[in-house]
Amino acid sequence: MAVENRRLGAAMFFPAIAFIVLLIGAPFALAVMYAFSDARIGSPGFHYVGFENFRSILQSPSFQAALRNSIVFTVCAQIIVIVCSTILSIALEKPFRGRKFVRFLILLPWVAPISLGAIGWKWILDSIYSVITWVLVWAHVFKPYSAPMWLGEPHLAMASVILVHCWRLIPFSTVIMLAGRTAIPKDIPEAAAIDGAGFWRTLFQINIPMMAPIISVAVLFGTIFTFTDMTVVYILTAGGPFDSTQVLPSLAFATGIQGSDLAAGAAISIFLVPVLVLIAYFMLRAAHRAEVA
Amino acid sequence: MAVVEARNLTKVFKQGELGAVNNVNLETREGEFLVLLGPSGSGKTTLLRMIAGLETPTSGEIRIGGDVVNHLTPRERGIAMVFQSYALYPHLSVYNNIAFPLKAQKVPKEQHKQKVEWAAGLLGIEKLLQRKPRELSGGERQRVALARAIVREPRVFLLDEPLSNLDAKLRASAREELDEFHDRIKTTTIYVTHDQVEAMALGDRVVVLHQGVVRQIGTPREVYDEPADTFVATFLGSPPMNLLEADDAIVGFRPERFLPAGLIAPWAPMGEIAKTLRPENLLPADLQSSGKRISLRFRVEHSEFLGAERILYGTLEGTRFRDKPVCARVSSSVLETYTPDTSYDFAVPEHELKFFDAKTGKRITPRPLSWQ
Predict the structure, then answer these.
(1) Which of A75, A82, A226, B49 sits between 20 and 30 A of B230, alpha carbons compared?
(2) Strand, coil or helix: what is B276?
(3) pLDDT surpasses 50 at A154
């Protein structure tokens, strides 16, 4: 009986382990290996070079810019996402007519494949076909010849990329927050109302502190999603204009795959690992705290 | 301190359905401890929540201290409430929990410390001020909730089943403390419970609610001894009053007044009874001496031994009620054993019989009754 159970357990674990080893473990090991080598696409030579790749990427201005962009991108997107999803979760908490439909609409961006969503946004923000520009011209905010190039000007391009990312992450965050709010017993905000607290005091001194563990889970998940994602950047701007929206994952792709410098590309992507491990550590701790509370 | 009044207060949650609270009229007295008692779903909590301002009445008026407060928010009503779950703020220390109402009501900051310490002292929780609610026992949480309620010196105290989360032993001592606490602060208190023992022990008056309707308002003694209808008669008392339907009336008597005939024999020489009984079995004088008694043959079917008492279940043999189950509650040392399926001579004093209208269930004046 015990032996059989152990076999069954092993059999049930096997697919998950195989998945992790083959699809995550092997490429990761390969990336680590490349990062310490001089591997290039098309060249058979393969030598261990120590930390040479890291030294060189740290000195490269495009890496520094990409690191800066990654941080701006992630931090801005997270702030907007958390504020918006907190507001949405409060708005969606009390029942009203059509609440289920609104919840469904809000979830749509998360359900849609990210590449398709990004391609849709590429059209919405296109320099010629943009519906946003069209509406603004129609409303006489801009003249047709001086309309903004959403993806063509450095700051606008960054803002566009951040907003598309928010569009994608807000549903996810909202769902986490809604779950977190339902975990607050109904009588606690009621007790606050009786104690004389108004809406803002209840929100900032009761609801948000009580949601803190769940908010930190949402923030850390969102941070990892944003930090490691290159789809939105790659489809909308491919890092341009003038590398102004280049982030670490897209730079790694451009350098390693498109630029044939596998070793440098691997080093750029490996560079993220310690940062993300740290974030993941805090994420797990926050999640654990949320469970304990 | 203030008087709370409800005038024709009604709450209907879903249109077309029976209201949770229907046309309730009641008025507390100054500094009174008023208990709302009823089974679950009787509307007692909804009534309390309307007084608190957490629920908007469908119709009717609520007055606190003479002023209509229907349109006021909870904070403007000058009330304090203790929730069944205590609803302590889990992320705040006990000190900050108690200070929260002071902050929310913009009491000058320099008074906070002194007021929190006063409230904590009143409830004996000075040593817990730095703890978080999760580090407290059930009884301590309840005291923190009370301290948080009292700290702002409310006009009215609302308590929603505050003892139901405590274990039985703690509940008895907490009940006593609550009683003492009320004696000290003398603030008008409205207390919701489904536990008749709590209601009897704590209430100056008890409001018995059923299906959102007030069935009776009276002192614990009144609602127990003189129930206004069959619902009150059966809701109070354990086991509840025996009810027997006789033509157009229902006759009821309390199981503890239905006793072995020898115990309520007005003609038995007192000395003889005293010889056979221990002091705890001596019955109230009115049972022994005055009035007429009705003798009945009680066929005991089974009995439950509860320590000090014994509950006997059976039927009234030789009467027209012989199909109806009846029970008696006797001191367990009155008779050593009751053999199942044996008949005993029992009796009930005539003035202990309560009569109710068979249709409405309302109390009516005593009338002649034939047992055969």
Answers:
(1) B49
(2) helix
(3) yes
pTM for the full predicted model = 0.77
The torsion region of residue B354 among left (phi > 0), alpha (psi -120 to 50) and beta comes to beta
Tokens of B276: 């056979």
Name the token pair of B180: 């003492």
> Alpha helix (H) ranges present in A139-261?
154-182, 187-194, 199-201, 208-228, 231-236, 248-253
Number of domains making up chain A: 1
Backbone angles phi, psi at B79, to 5 degrees: -110, 165
Phi and psi, residue B73, nearest 5°? -75, 165
Q: Are strands B188-193 and B156-160 parallel, antiparallel or unpaired?
A: parallel
Please state the rounded mean pLDDT for residues A199-224: 85
In total, the C-beta contacts within 8 angstroms joining chain A to chain B are 62
Q: How many CB atoms lie within 10 A of CB A259?
A: 14
Cβ atoms within 10 A of the Cβ of A280, count?
14
**What type of residue sits at position A8?**
L
B104 and A192 within 8 Å at the Cβ level: the answer is yes
Residue A108: which CATH number? 1.10.3720.10
Answer whether B332's CB lies under 8 Å from B310's CB: yes
Q: Element (H or E) spanning B79, and its range?
A: strand B79-82
Sign of CA dihedral A262, A263, A268, A273: positive
Tell me, yes or no, if A212 comes closer than 8 A to chain B by beta carbon. yes
Q: Is A193 on the interface with B (CB under 8 A)?
A: yes
| A275 contact B CB<8A | no
Cβ(B28)–Cβ(B104) under 8 Å? no
Domain housing A254: 61-292
Taken in order B344, B345, B350, B355, the sign of the CA dihedral is positive
Whether A191 sits inside 8 A of B83 (CB atoms) is yes
- Asked if B104 and A210 come within 8 Å (Cβ–Cβ), the reply is no
Residue A99 lies in a domain: yes
CA distance A157 to A136: 18
Angle between helical axes of B168-185 and B112-123 (0-180°, round to 10): 130
- Strand, coil or helix: B257: helix
Number of other CB atoms surrounding residue A48 within 10 Å: 9
Per the CB < 8 A criterion, the answer to whether B9 and B57 are in contact is yes
Q: Which domains does chain B have, with CATH numbers?
A: 4-230 (3.40.50.300), 238-364 (2.40.50.140)
- Chain A, nearest residue to B151 by Cα: A195
User: What pLDDT digit, counting tens, does each position of B149-161 carry?
Assistant: 989 888 999 999 9
Q: Could you report the per-residue pLDDT of B85-124, keeping only the tens digit for each? A: 899 998 899 999 999 999 988 889 889 999 999 889 888 8
CA-wise closest residue to B132 among A289, A246, A142, A143: A289
What Cα–Cα distance (Å) separates residue B171 from each residue in B124, B176, B203?
A: 17, 9, 16
B188-193 and B33-37 as β-strands: parallel, antiparallel, unpaired?
A: parallel
Distance from CA of B53 to the nearest CA of A (A): 8
CB A157 within 8 A of CB A244: yes
pLDDT score recorded for residue B50? 94
**Is residue A146 a part of any domain in this protein?**
yes
d(CA B61, CA B80): 19
Collapsing DSSP states into helix, strand and coil, what is residue B346? strand
A45 within a domain of the structure (yes/no): no
Tokens of A10: 């092993």
